[in-house]
């Protein structure tokens, strides 16, 4: 073997050694690629997207163009509502291959969450074409996007005066708005149903000088989601029978009722009233 051949062999061995070290250091905890992949898939199947996401990110560091890893990472980001523009990039890579029929749905959701409504509608309709038996509820999402199109063309620039992270169960205590006073409070047992779980909206609004309370609840069953109710205060101080606000409730969720100081104008959030996304559209209704 001449010197040139020896040099080439030595360089090849060094390159292979460096590649092995680099690969071994690519994954945390000394785990192999297969172990990381199996853990990620297990978390994903359990819908534990928070635990699955960093594992897919590790795999993506090694295989950035892998369509399957791009799909799973993009889905995790959409489900967690995190890094949505990045999720769109991942899902677009996944859409170039037949990775999963749901990629069109998740691209629709990502564009929807990013207020790119025309693109969202296009992908929602693609999903309907591909997988009709799993497209339940897509028509409602398309309607939400159509509702959003005129809204994104007329918006206000907000002046942020203060910002803080608070417990979601105590958020209403941090409002500093004239007229709020102590009218928002936690729901008491008498205005909760057995279907109202720990994650339910646990806020009620006192109105008409404390004579009425407005709140949302699953009521007697969860068939129609959360609806709006009110109850009148009895002479003994407890709350009377629940009155369903039928004129306001839809087949989807209505929550966060707030009665204005005039005792007639009710504000609330809804999925069913010209909403463009889950429970972010504010509605106003004058009570009779």
Please describe what this structure looks like:
The protein is α+β, with helices and mostly antiparallel strands and 288 residues long. It has two domains: 23-151, Serine Threonine Protein Phosphatase 5, Tetratricopeptide repeat (Alpha Horseshoe); 168-286, no CATH class. It is built from eight helices and eight strands. The strands form two sheets. The protein has a five-stranded antiparallel beta sheet, with no helix packed on it. Helix 4 (67-80) packs antiparallel against helix 5 and helix 6 packs antiparallel against helix 7 (117-130). The radius of gyration is 26 Å and the shape is elongated.
List the helices and strands and how they pair.
Elements: H1 3-24, H2 33-45, H3 49-62, H4 67-80, H5 84-95, H6 103-113, H7 117-130, H8 138-151, E1 184-186, E2 203-207, E3 212-217, E4 227-232, E5 243-244, E6 254-259, E7 265-270, E8 281-286
Antiparallel strand pairs: 1-2, 2-3, 3-4, 4-5, 6-7, 7-8
């Amino acid at each position: 073997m001449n010197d040139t051949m020896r040099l080439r062999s030595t360089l090849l061995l060094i390159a292979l050694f460096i590649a092995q070290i680099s690969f071994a250091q690519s994954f945390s905890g000394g785990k192999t690629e297969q172990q990381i992949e199996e853990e990620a898939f297990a978390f994903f199947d359990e819908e534990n997207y928070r635990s699955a996401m960093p594992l897919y990110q590790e795999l993506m560091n090694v295989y950035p163009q892998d369509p399957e890893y791009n799909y799973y990472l993009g889905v995790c980001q959409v489900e967690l509502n995190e890094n949505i523009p990045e999720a769109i990039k991942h899902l677009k890579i996944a859409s170039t291959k037949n990775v999963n029929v749901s990629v069109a749905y998740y691209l629709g959701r990502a564009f929807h969450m990013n207020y790119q409504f025309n693109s969202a509608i296009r992908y929602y309709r693609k999903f309907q074409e591909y997988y009709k038996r799993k497209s339940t509820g897509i028509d409602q999402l398309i309607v939400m996007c159509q509702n959003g199109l005129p809204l994104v063309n007329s918006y206000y620039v907000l002046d942020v005066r203060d910002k803080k992270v608070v417990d979601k169960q105590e958020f209403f205590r941090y409002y500093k708005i004239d007229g709020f006073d102590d009218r928002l409070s936690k729901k008491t047992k008498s205005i909760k149903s057995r279907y109202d779980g720990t994650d339910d909206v646990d806020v009620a609004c006192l109105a008409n000088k404390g004579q009425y309370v407005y709140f949302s609840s699953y009521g007697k069953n969860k068939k129609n989601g959360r609806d709006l109710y009110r109850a009148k205060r009895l002479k003994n101080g407890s709350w009377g029978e629940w009155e369903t606000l039928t004129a306001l409730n839809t087949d989807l969720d209505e929550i966060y009722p707030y009665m204005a100081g005039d005792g007639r104008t009710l504000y609330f959030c809804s999925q069913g009233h010209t909403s463009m996304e889950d429970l972010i559209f504010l509605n106003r209704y004058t009570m009779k």
